[in-house]
Amino acid sequence: MPELLEALAHGRTIVIVEGEAKADLLWSWNIPSTCNSGGAEKWGTEHSAYLSGADAVVLPDNDPPGRLHLDAVAVSLKEVGGSVRVLDLPGLGAKGDIADWAAAGGTREQLDDLIENTARPWAQPNGHATT
Length: 131
Hints:
The chain has 131 residues and is an alpha/beta fold. Helix content is 40%, strand content 11%. The protein has one domain: Dna Topoisomerase Vi A Subunit, Chain: A, domain 2 (3-Layer(aba) Sandwich).
């Protein structure tokens, strides 16, 4: 938590994933990240409270629970003034995630490039994009 708060204080983008192992992977790459206990669909307002006004990128798992989790996180972050983008990692199979992408050869540099150039604003379930 102290590292996350420091990253926020310096205006760094925060990457949100499903699961501690995935967040740990990103931290090993010096990418500020967080998750919530319990996995998909367990994100609550108490998690977003720490991220008020943050620039966040959500890396959803490539499955239906991952999409539901993405929407829950995004709605909650928007309520606290966060900016939310989504990055769908290329080449993920069904149920794939950042750990699978990294295991297939994905690198920190590639992820930085994808976040910078490919992450898109989250679109509300009604289809309207927001930032």
